[in-house]
Fold this sequence. Notes:
The chain folds into 2 domains: 9-82, P-loop containing nucleotide triphosphate hydrolases (Rossmann fold), CATH 3.40.50; 88-149. Helix content is 28%, strand content 27%. It has 6 helices and 9 strands, in the order αβαβαββαβββαββα.
Amino acid sequence: xxxxxxxxxxxxxxxxxxxxxxxxxxxxxxxxxxxxxxxxxxxxxxxxxxxxxxxxxxxxxxxxxxxxxxxxxxxxxxxxxxxxxxxxxxxxxxxxxxxxxxxxxxxxxxxxxxxxxxxxxxxxxxxxxxxxxxxxxxxxxxxxxxxxxxxxxxxxxxxxxxxxxxxxxxxx
Length: 172
């Protein structure tokens, strides 16, 4: 990647499209540091398009999400995250199909034989607490893929947040 010609005339505005894609970890950090330096020391405004959550967290104070040509979100990353439901779902296969599942910090959504689906807020109770091992309520299996928000998307991924906002738009 050669940036010298682009920076030769001291631009006030720099557009970067996926600047760290395909780079190893050390090179990514170097590119991020360079972008930060350009902004801090030279006052260059950087408009970054990326799917890399680490780039967004490391470089961006303001996040715009555009869907179907319209701005669907404009603000901080924290504000964007706050628009996504905190409810997560946990699916557990119990050893004993007759076991009563009672957890004050979770709501039973569905039960089919040994399989139970619980809704919970990870800010209040962790999945590990819900899967606590006891003789009466020992899960036979569960996996991290069983833990998901109520809308089925990954908990904190930026693409998931973007997709949930994008899908809420009316059709063209």
